[in-house]
């Protein structure tokens, strides 16, 4: 046991040094692309696994229609990325195979279908790998329920916390296991800035910082402290502290929930609460998500590849709304807001006001492709 303790301590020291180096690289900042002026924008399309290719087909058709002129003029390119399938990843023993990652790094932005993460084993989630490799530090998830006055946007830190080191814990066999959670100064500052910049640019008056700082005193304590330091530069915006447990209750408290606007959270709490929020909006199938970094950005559905739906033969009935919302976020990100608005309006006609073709996710509803045809008609 003594030897194992020593080995774990050495492992911990290596993690500390590696994370310190990461925080120092981050503090230097990253180059960003000015999409409003860019002469050529490459959108990488990744089908993913399970229902991924089914919902991505509709997103691709919508993108082709919306971007017809830009594609014809050579200003925008839609590029298929191959190799990010669970079969290939398992065969290669790489979460994101090196040649696929190289293709991805040639793009500016990505639209990605859900990828399967094997339970157990050593293969890391492709999402987690891509977020780290592309340094996509802000996971931005809007949730709206217009009828109830709910207009939320979540800024989830996307590269740190439990996720950074979650597959690199230590074990003293038969006795104990220990995982690590890391929060860095630069990592917290940049996500906090993203949330407050968004609030200022969009006329929001309140940012709720959600942690469990009463228990996770170092990591969440630092997250809260830095959020308030950043907030000092935005005196017109209120910065409130909340604990994650009561916030999960607040979101189902209809007397209170519409008062919240912008949420700022560490990675794992953001993961959990955005599924709850999406469910309030109508289900995880209705929510899109942006993973933003300095150089790259990736847009995806917030749900997984739904292997159970494929197994019981209901894959063709999957709801493409989530990936279409992700496409809307992508269009906004590359400075094409009028295209994003066109898509948002068509989606709202198809899913809220007219509802001629209704997807339920099951056999009793329309197919994904039928909904795609309906949407194209309205675009
Ligand atoms: C999400 C997903 C991912 C996460 C999984 C697929 C690794 O749940 O994007 O919220 O935990 O971040
Ligand atoms: Mg999640």
How would you sum up this structure in a few lines?
With about 375 residues, the chain is of the alpha/beta class.
Tell me the name of the CATH homologous superfamily of the domain at 31-136 and 293-378.
Isopropylmalate Dehydrogenase
Cα shape: globular
Q: Could you give the order of the helices and strands?
A: HEHHEHHEHEEHEEHEHEHEHEEHHHH
Number of contiguous helices: 15
How are the SSEs ordered, and which strands pair?
Blueprint: H1 2-27, E1 41-46, H2 52-66, H3 68-72, E2 76-80, H4 86-92, H5 98-105, E3 109-112, H6 126-133, E4 138-145, E5 150-157, H7 162-165, E6 170-172, E7 176-178, H8 185-201, E8 206-211, H9 219-231, E9 238-243, H10 244-250, E10 262-265, H11 267-281, E11 288-292, E12 297-301, H12 307-311, H13 321-333, H14 337-353, H15 368-378
Parallel strand pairs: 1-2, 1-3, 3-12, 5-10, 8-9, 8-10
Antiparallel strand pairs: 4-5, 4-11, 6-7, 11-12
Helix pairs in contact: 2-13, 2-15, 8-9, 13-14, 14-15
Residues 271, 275 line the site of magnesium ion.
How would you sum up this structure, described in words?
This protein is α/β, with parallel strands linked by helices and 379 residues long. The protein has a domain at 31-136 and 293-378: Isopropylmalate Dehydrogenase. The protein contains 15 helices and twelve strands. The chain has helices at residues 2-27, 52-66, 68-72, 86-92, 98-105, 126-133, 162-165, 185-201, 219-231, 244-250, 267-281, 307-311, 321-333, 337-353, 368-378, and strands at 41-46, 76-80, 109-112, 138-145, 150-157, 170-172, 176-178, 206-211, 238-243, 262-265, 288-292, 297-301. The N and C termini lie far apart (65 Å). Residues 271, 275 line the site of magnesium ion.
């Amino acid at each position: 046991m003594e030897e194992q303790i020593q080995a774990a301590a050495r492992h911990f020291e290596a993690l500390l040094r590696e994370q310190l180096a990461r925080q120092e690289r981050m503090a230097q900042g990253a180059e960003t692309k000015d999409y409003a002026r860019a002469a050529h924008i490459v959108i990488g399309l990744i089908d993913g696994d399970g229902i991924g290719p089914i919902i991505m087909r509709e997103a691709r058709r919508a993108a082709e229609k919306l971007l017809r002129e830009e594609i014809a003029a050579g200003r925008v390119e839609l590029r298929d990325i191959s190799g990010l399938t669970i079969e290939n990843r398992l065969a290669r023993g790489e979460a994101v195979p090196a040649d696929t990652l190289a293709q991805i790094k040639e793009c500016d932005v990505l639209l990605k279908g859900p990828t399967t993460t094997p339970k157990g084993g050593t293969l890391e989630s492709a999402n987690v790998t891509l977020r780290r490799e592309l340094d996509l530090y802000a996971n931005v998830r809007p949730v709206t329920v217009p009828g109830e006055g709910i207009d939320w946007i979540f800024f989830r830190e996307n590269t740190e916390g439990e996720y950074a080191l979650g597959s690199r814990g230590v074990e003293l066999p038969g006795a104990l296991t220990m995982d690590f959670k890391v929060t860095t100064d630069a990592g917290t500052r940049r996500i906090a800035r993203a949330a407050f910049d968004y609030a200022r640019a969009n006329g929001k008056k309140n940012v709720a910082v959600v942690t469990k700082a009463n228990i996770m005193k170092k990591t969440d304590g630092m997250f809260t402290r830095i959020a308030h330091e950043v907030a000092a530069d935005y005196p017109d915006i209120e910065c409130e502290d909340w604990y994650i447990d009561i916030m999960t209750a607040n979101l189902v408290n209809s007397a209170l929930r519409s008062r919240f606007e912008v949420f700022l959270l560490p990675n794992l709490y953001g993961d959990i609460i955005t599924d709850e929020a999406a469910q309030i909006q109508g289900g995880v199938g209705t929510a899109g998500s942006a993973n933003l970094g300095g150089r790259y950005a990736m847009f995806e559905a917030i749900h997984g590849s739904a292997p159970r739906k494929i197994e019981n033969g209901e894959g063709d009935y999957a709801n493409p709304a989530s990936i279409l919302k992700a496409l809307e976020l992508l269009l906004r990100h590359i400075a094409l807001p009028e295209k994003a608005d066109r898509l948002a309006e068509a989606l709202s006609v198809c899913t809220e006001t007219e509802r001629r073709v209704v997807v339920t996710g099951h056999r009793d509803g329309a197919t994904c492709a039928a909904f795609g045809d309906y949407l194209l008609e309205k675009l």
